[in-house]
Design goal:
Two copies of one chain form a homodimer.
Chain A (H helix, E strand, L loop, with lengths): L8 H12 L1 H8 L5 H8 L4 E2 H7 L5 H13 L3 E6 L5 E6 L1 H4 L2 H15 L2
Antiparallel strand pairs in A: 1-3, 2-3
Chain A binds a DNA duplex (30 and 30 nucleotides) through α1, α4 and α5.
Chain lengths: ~120, ~120
DNA sequence: TAGGGTACTATAAAAAATGTAAGTAATGTC
DNA sequence: GACATTACTTACATTTTTTATAGTACCCTA
């Protein structure tokens, strides 16, 4: 996940589209397999790594870590490490992270409508 | 793209998440590399295969075909073949397809805001 | 001293998505 | 008959994403 080939056509295509369309740009940021689910859970407030893990049955620790890092890199979540043993790490949405709510709401509304077809 | 392994963990995870969260369900439907861009262009009205191709620099015919098929399967677009030579095929959003507009709008708004950070 | 809890990291492999290159069908024009 | 046009299809290669499995560090408790 962290090693994309910046010389690939795929990379160039994504970059070009992201540049032109803000909606594609946004979709690329929140578009991992688990990202939206993580964000949705965090909408209710901060959670620890382990809590997220329990809330997302099937996710591996590696995936959770990767997605959280990506979200952190994109300033969607903040990561706060407490100097304790055993370790405790809190994840919380940033301001711009919380502002994803309208998107999630619209996706949810549309998804429900589409399911009913 | 058409051969997903229904026995894979990945498939199971996606299905489970889609089931629980309508927003993830929606994201899975509109979430190909080019899907959103295609949908965004079609928001202004129907387009031919070749027109879409021109509007999306970098896309290959194969990818365009695949994405359009997926959108068609998901009832986002309709495909109308005109019995002419050379062939002419029109793609147009369905009702539920046009209803994706709020999502695209919100993504666009958020994307712009995020770019400005 | 052994084991437990927490949040990771490293490495490999599998699966999925995307790209490349070539070919097809039908018909009208030169 | 060769060629152009359009919307594909097919076989294959590459890239990206996700999963699997096994570790690590830290201190506390028994």
């Amino acid at each position: 996940m962290s090693k994309v080939k910046v010389s690939s056509t795929n990379f160039a295509n994504k970059a070009a589209l992201s540049d032109e369309c803000s909606e594609v740009y946004a979709a690329n940021i929140i578009g991992g397999q688990w990202s939206l689910a993580i964000i949705a859970w965090l909408m209710n407030g901060k959670l620890r790594f382990g809590q997220l893990k329990k809330l997302l049955p099937g996710i591996t620790e590696r995936m959770l870590t990767l997605q959280l890092r990506k979200l952190e890199d994109n300033k969607i979540v903040t990561r706060v490490v407490h100097a304790e043993v055993p370790p405790r790490v809190d994840y919380e949405l940033t301001t711009i992270g919380y502002e994803l709510k309208p998107i999630i709401d619209q996706l949810s509304i549309w998804g429900d409508k589409h399911k009913g077809l």
